[in-house]
Design goal:
8-stranded mixed β-barrel, 41% helix, binds guanosine-5'-monophosphate, binds manganese (II) ion
Length: 388
C-alpha cells in the first residue's frame, strides 16, 4: 500500500538554558513530525545555525551570558533572516514591545499550549520563505533597502555602513574668479542596503544613533584635514541634532583644530524645533572659529526664524532653484531677490547643483557669489579637479 509523501515539516531549533524544558519541547515537536534540535545557550545556537539554518528558531528570552534579544541581534548582524519566536516565563509589556521592535516573529508566554507553538512555527516557516524571496529581490534585483527591515537588521546594516564610511569632496568655486574656494565634504558608504546619505541618516534616526554618525563623519574629515592641510575652506554638513552633541564643542573634536577654515552647513530641510539652546550653542561654535551656512535654502519648510537664529555667513540655494534657471523667469526673479537680501545681510550666496553652462551664466548674472555642481566636478575622493 503506497502512502502520499507527507509535506515536509519545517525544521525547528529550540534554544533554552533549562535542559528539561528543552527536551520537552523537542520531544513534543518530534512527535508531531517536526525535525527539531536544540541548543542550551545562544552561543551554541549560533554555532549550529552557522552550519545549517533551521526554518524557525524558538528561543527563551532569559538566558545567562547572551539572552534571546542578543541572539536575535547576532543573527541579524550575520544577515541570517530566520524567524525567531521568543518565549518567556516573565512577561512584561516592555519586553514584548522590544521583541516586536527587534523583529521577533512572536512573543509567547510559558507555559505554551502545543497547538499555539505549532501554529506559530508554521506561520514562521511561511514567513521564512517570504524573507528568502525578499532577500533575493533586494540582492538580485536591487529593489528596496534596509530601511524597511526590522530594527535589528537596520542596526546591522548601519554598523556595516559606519565601518565602510568614506567622505567625498566636491569643489565650491568663486564664479567671478574661476577659483576653488572650498570643498564640501559629503558622506558616502559602501553598504549596498544603505544606498544614499538620506537612508544613512534615517537609519541613524531610527536607531537613535545620530550622534554616532556625526562623530564618525567628523572623525574622517578631521583625518583628511590633518593629512592634507588644505589652503581652501571645508564645508561640513551637520545634522541639527549634532548641535546637541557636546563633543562638537570640545577642543578635542577631530575638526576643532581646523575650525577657522570650516563652514558648518545646517540644512533647512530638518527642523531645529526640538533642539534646545540653539542660539547660545551656535554662538559657541562661532567662538571656536566655525562659520555657519544654511543649506538647501528653498527646499525646506523653515521660516525666517531659522535665519534669525542661525545668522549664517553663507547661504546655499537648493539645486531645485538652480535647475533650468536659464529658462525660468520665476526662478530668476526669486534667486535675484534672495541674493540681494543675503548681500544686504552680509551673507555669501552659493548656487548648488549647477549642471550646465546656461545655469552657471544665469546664477552668475543674478548675483550668486559661489557655485558647486556636476558642471565643475562630481564629488569624489580628496580632491577632485575642476572643469569650467
Ligand atoms: O544637501 P546637500 O546640498 O549637502 O547635498 C548635496 C548632494 O547633491 C550631494 O549628495 C551631491 O552628490 C549632490 N550633488 C552635487 N552636485 C550636484 C549636481 O550638480 N546635480 C545633482 N543632481 N546633484 C548634485
Ligand atoms: Mn550641503
Amino acid at each position: 500500500m503506497s502512502q502520499e509523501p507527507a509535506k515536509a515539516k519545517p525544521s525547528v531549533l529550540i534554544v533554552d538554558d533549562e535542559e528539561a524544558l528543552r527536551r520537552a519541547f523537542v520531544r513534543t515537536l518530534q512527535a508531531r513530525g517536526f525535525p527539531a534540535r536544540s541548543a542550551g545557550s545562544a552561543a551554541e545556537a549560533l554555532g549550529l545555525l552557522a552550519e545549517k539554518v533551521d526554518d524557525v528558531v524558538v528561543s527563551d528570552v532569559r538566558m545567562p551570558c547572551m539572552d534571546g534579544f542578543e541572539l536575535l541581534r547576532a543573527l541579524r548582524a550575520q544577515e541570517i533572516d530566520v524567524p525567531v519566536i521568543l518565549v518567556t516565563g516573565a512577561p512584561s509589556i516592555e519586553t514584548a514591545a522590544r521583541a516586536v521592535e527587534f523583529g521577533a516573529l512572536r512573543y509567547l508566554i510559558k507555559p505554551i499550549a502545543t497547538d499555539e507553538l505549532i501554529a506559530a512555527i508554521e506561520h514562521g516557516a511561511q514567513l521564512h520563505k517570504m524573507a528568502k524571496l525578499k532577500h533575493e529581490a533586494v540582492t538580485k534585483l536591487g529593489l528596496g533597502s534596509a530601511q524597511a527591515g526590522d530594527l535589528a537588521s537596520v542596526e546591522a546594516a548601519f554598523n556595516r555602513a559606519l565601518e565602510s564610511l568614506w567622505i567625498a569632496y566636491q569643489p565650491v568655486v568663486a564664479l567671478d574668479q574661476r577659483k576653488v574656494v572650498a570643498y564640501e565634504a559629503l558622506v558616502r558608504t559602501r553598504e549596498p542596503s544603505i544606498p544614499h546619505p538620506g537612508a544613512l541618516f534615517s537609519a541613524a534616526e531610527r536607531l537613535s544613533r545620530l550622534h554616532d554618525l556625526g562623530r564618525a563623519i567628523r572623525h574622517h574629515i578631521g583625518r583628511t584635514l590633518d593629512a592634507t592641510r588644505p589652503t581652501w575652506d571645508t564645508y561640513v554638513n551637520i545634522h541639527p541634532f549634532d548641535i546637541s552633541d557636546d563633543t562638537l564643542f570640545s577642543s578635542s573634536s577631530p575638526i576643532a583644530l581646523h575650525a577657522s577654515a570650516i563652514v558648518l552647513e545646517i540644512t533647512e530641510r530638518a527642523t531645529l524645533d526640538n533642539i534646545g539652546d540653539v542660539t547660545p550653542r551656535i554662538q559657541r561654535l562661532r567662538e571656536i572659529g566655525y562659520r555657519v551656512a544654511v543649506d538647501d535654502l528653498g527646499a525646506g519648510y523653515a521660516g525666517l526664524s531659522y535665519f534669525a537664529r542661525l545668522q549664517p555667513e553663507v547661504v546655499k540655494l537648493d539645486m531645485s532653484l538652480v535647475r533650468d534657471i536659464d529658462h525660468d523667469l520665476t526662478k530668476q526673479r526669486v534667486v535675484a531677490s534672495m541674493a540681494s537680501v543675503c548681500h544686504e545681510l552680509g551673507m555669501l550666496v552659493v548656487a548648488e547643483g549647477v549642471e550646465t553652462r546656461g545655469e552657471r551664466e544665469a546664477v552668475t548674472a543674478l548675483g550668486c557669489d559661489l557655485a558647486q555642481g556636476y558642471l565643475f566636478a562630481r564629488p569624489g575622493p580628496p580632491y577632485p579637479d575642476v572643469n569650467w
